[in-house]
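Q: You know discrete backbone vocabularies at least as well as I do. I have my own habits and do not want them to colour yours. No explanation is needed for now; the record alone will do.
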Amino acid sequence: MGPHPAVAAIRLAVRRVLNDVLNEALAHPPTSPAAHEAPPEPLVLVACSGGADSMALASALAFEARKLPVRAGGITVDHGLQDGSDVRAAEVVSRLSAMDLGPVESVAVTVGRAGGPEAAARDARYAALDAAAERHGAAAVLLGHTRDDQAETVLLGLARGSGIRSLSGMAAVSGAAGRYRRPFLQLDRQTARKACLVQQLPVWDDPHNTDPSYTRSRLRHEGLPALEKSLGKGVVEALARTAQLSRDDADALDAWAADADLSVRDESGELECTKLYALPPAVRRRVLRRNAIAAGSPAGSLFARHIEEIDRLITGWRGQGAINLPGRVEARRQGGRLVIRQG
């Protein structure tokens, strides 16, 4: 008798990702000190909070890694936002070690305030995961985001009015050199929870996930259920499809903008307003965003309204002054050229 369908589904999703990692490792082997030495097995880490999604992911990674030339380890991040968080982090380390994962470690971080509590915690978490991956030489870090998380991300992007890139949600592969992998984006949250239940895996339900002071929590427990009540079941699946379609479109437009960026400059490399004006608006705004980021404006702080203000220097020129952007970057129109630089 085979495994429970939920367990089989999560294992298959992880197996596919591990095969991708192995194929990439074979295609780009590390430089070996001696020609006769076999390249080391790639290390794959799972980021585990102790919740159902990441515990199911850790279990599937431990199971599948035994059958492949892959080393498997785990990282848990202690955000220090709740009493006893260090104790819970130690429990996660113990559970991951019991799965024969290694290396396994807990990393404590200090969460700042920039961008609000959710964004600050996310930034601290990814910084810790990046550092851990570098420290251990990991080929990939697995994240337990599900289709439900994807749907929530799309709705949050829609609420911000940030454009098609926000609607594209989370990528299955992201980060430097494709470090982060999300095997569960096609699986719902209940599948992961069911997999933990049938395997008798203990899970921890973070109280922040039900705290109405957090936007994502309100969306999860109030917004999405209200949408499903009004529109019927299938909203989560439809939003996940929207994310993929939007990502495909956004990727194509970004590639177009990268090419266009080279064609709208004069001999000295300055952006020419007449050439920018001739571009389709979606492409032009991407060119403007690219240049603002290149000048030093932080991508996470650069919103659609900022780009619209720069765009008006091209499409609605009335002699207006410089536009101030995050990161002390300034955009101004000078003699038919658009100049974006740090002031």
User: Anything to note?
Assistant: The radius of gyration is 23 Å. The beta strands are 43-47, 71-78, 104-108, 140-142, 173-174, 180-181, 271-272, 323-325, 329-334, 337-342. The chain has twelve helices and ten strands. The CA atoms of residues 196 and 224 lie 24 Å apart.
